[in-house]
Amino acid sequence: MGLDTRSETQVRYEFRFPDGRLWVHGVDLAPVPPEPGPEWARLGFQQCGNCPLKVAEIRDCPFATALARPMAVLARSPSYEEVAVTVSWRGREVRQHTTLQRALGSLLGLLGATSGCPHTRMLRAMAWFHQPFSSSSETFYRVVGTYLLGQHLRQERGLEPDWNLDGLRELYRNLRQVNLGMAGRLRAAAEEDSSLNGLILLDLLAADTLYSLDSYEGELDGFFAEFFEEE
Predict the structure, then answer these.
(1) What does pTM read for this prediction?
(2) CB 194 within 8 A of CB 71
(3) DSSP assignment letter at 35
């Protein structure tokens, strides 16, 4: 049976601030045509060093365009401000009281994965099974599990699989460069530090995942004891 995407194509983030403000942002999981972005979203403005897109062919950076609306609303809020966040999707809700920085880190990760950026498009499969506010170990589990499932599906279609995770390591190296590029754009646009710090938090998570891929020391072995038993 195919995936019924009609009721599963949007994740809703709701931010409630201490002063009573309410801000809601929906993220479409299915590809949608991007709207024109602000000047700081132009592709040539602090373009990422590893960006394969060409200014002559595309006007705006896909990732930056996806950040435009959150930036316009939240750029004047400090990262340490406490917020109540409700994330709704697939008929369920996740509620958390946290800092704006951490809440934005979760939202920005989802926006990046669904933005259409060439270096984040492989994360779209994870976006379909979004887990807000995931820890480093949860992210590592989801990243590796998603990638290996993707390789299995490639092999089923007669394509060459990557069981050594070399492509995943390259993906995260590129992702770190993208995060640095986005940070440069946000520094030029933000009046406060909330969105920038949210992106820095996201980059720390990416760095931690890359480190775990390059230097795995058995962090998840305890959850897989049954797999190590002799038959």
Answers:
(1) 0.83
(2) no
(3) P
Q: For residue 3, how many other CB atoms are within 10 A of its CB? A: 7
Q: pLDDT by residue for the chain (231 residues), tens digit each?
A: 444 444 578 999 999 999 999 999 999 988 777 778 888 889 998 899 899 999 999 999 999 899 888 887 777 777 788 999 999 998 899 999 998 888 888 898 899 899 999 999 889 999 999 999 888 888 889 999 999 999 999 999 999 999 999 999 999 899 888 888 888 777 776 655 555 665 665 566 566 677 677 777 777 888 888 888 876
Single out the residue of 10, 11, 134, 22 nearest to residue 84, CA to CA: 22
DSSP state of 41: G
**Distances 230 to 109, 219, 220, 226, 227 between C-alpha atoms, Å:** 39, 21, 19, 9, 8
Length of the chain: 231
How far apart are alpha carbons 43 and 61 in whole angstroms?
A: 4
Residue with tokens 């976006």: 127
